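Dear colleague,

Thank you for sharing your sequence with our group. We've completed the structure prediction you requested, and as agreed, I am returning the results in plain text so they can be pasted directly into your records. Please verify that the sequence below matches your submission; if there's any discrepancy, let me know and we will rerun it promptly.
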Amino acid sequence: MGLYENHVVPRLVEFACGMRVNEPQRSRACAGLHGRVVEIGFGSGLNVPFYPAAVESISAVEPADLGWKLARKRLDRATVPIERAGLDGQSLPFADNTFDSALSTWTMCTIPDVATALAEVRRVLVPGGTLHFVEHGLAPDAKVQAWQHRLNPIEKAIAGGCNLDRDIRGLVQAAGFEIRDLDVFYGEGPKFLAALTLGVAASP
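Please find the predicted structure tokens below.
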């Protein structure tokens, strides 16, 4: 990772994903988390205030050192133990069947091999464990999709590899998860950026 990815992108993510307009979606995604939780793309800890009381611990997977530093105040206020336990969602350093729940918020857009990452999440979840997620991705409307495809190379270049047009539902299902709850909708902002998929999926 270069200077831009290490020092600029984490701050861009902190700003864009830290806007208050995203908080209701974070709250919904975190609802139902319980037990031992692995969070993929912990970033600067923006989900910390929304962890339910049923969460026992968080194993945070975050590649950016700056992101972890930006999380310091939130870590200090956390009411559950949080450890930085991995750097790469595509290769999780945990045994099979380790976690009760997994969390991913605005992360699947950026992981280079998201199919491998989802397979890893499924591996480390206990049978019946749940993946909770909110992601931006492929819009439900063809006209918006067309703009997403056009703009995707620019988005990837300026936003650290972020993709506008990934089919989140399709990726989760292809990884073998069973969708239990799903909401596809537009949040605030330009539709090509604000097409959101929020849901819960279970590991078989």
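Summary note from our side: Helices lie at 3-17, 23-30, 65-70, 72-77, 114-124, 142-158, 168-174, 191-194.

Kind regards,
the structure core
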